[in-house]
C-alpha cells in the first residue's frame, strides 16, 4: 500500500527554498513510477497563479505548493503564505486518485509552514479568487 511512500531527499529543501520569499514561486510533486517515492516534477522561480494552474494536467494527479507573497498584503505588512494543492482531476481515474490520496499525508506532514490546503478536481474549483480568500482566512 502507498503508506510506505518515502520522499525524495530534494523535496523538503526545495519547499524550504520556496518560503518565505524564497527562490521558487511553486513546486509540483509527483509519485515516482519507478519506486515508492514522492519526487519533484517541476520547480518554477517566476510565475503567476495562472501559470501554476496551467501546469496542472487534466488527466494526472499531482501535489503542488504555490507561494502567495507580494501579491497579497495584510494590514500593510509583508505577507507570505504557501498553498498546498492536492490535484485529483476526474480524468485521472480512480486508481491514480486513490494512490495520491493515500500518499498525500507523507508529503503534507513534512511541509512545515503551509498557510492553507485545498483539494482540486477542476481548475475552476481552485481558481485564484477562491484560494486567495482561503489563504487570507488562515492569516486571521
UniProtKB/TrEMBL annotation:
User: What does the record list as coiled-coil region(s)?
Assistant: none
Keyword presence, Cytoplasm:
no
Q: Which keywords has UniProt assigned to this entry?
A: Actin-binding
SMART domains linked: ADF
A GO cellular component annotation here is: actin cytoskeleton
Family, as annotated: Belongs to the actin-binding proteins ADF family.
UniProt-recorded name of the protein = Cofilin
Amino acid at each position: 500500500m502507498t503508506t510506505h511512500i518515502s520522499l525524495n531527499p530534494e523535496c523538503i529543501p526545495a519547499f524550504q527554498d520556496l518560503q518565505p520569499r524564497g527562490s521558487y514561486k511553486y513546486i509540483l510533486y509527483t509519485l515516482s513510477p519507478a519506486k515508492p517515492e514522492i519526487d519533484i516534477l517541476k520547480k518554477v522561480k517566476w510565475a503567476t497563479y495562472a501559470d501554476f494552474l496551467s501546469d496542472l494536467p487534466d488527466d494526472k494527479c499531482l501535489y503542488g505548493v504555490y507561494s502567495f507573497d507580494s501579491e497579497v498584503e495584510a494590514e500593510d505588512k509583508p505577507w507570505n503564505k504557501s498553498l498546498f494543492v492536492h490535484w485529483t482531476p476526474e480524468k485521472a481515474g480512480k486508481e491514480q486518485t486513490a494512490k495520491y490520496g493515500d500518499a498525500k499525508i507523507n508529503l503534507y506532514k513534512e511541509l512545515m509552514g503551509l498557510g492553507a490546503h485545498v483539494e482540486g478536481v477542476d481548475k475552476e474549483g481552485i481558481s485564484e479568487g477562491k484560494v486567495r480568500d482561503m489563504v487570507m482566512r488562515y492569516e486571521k
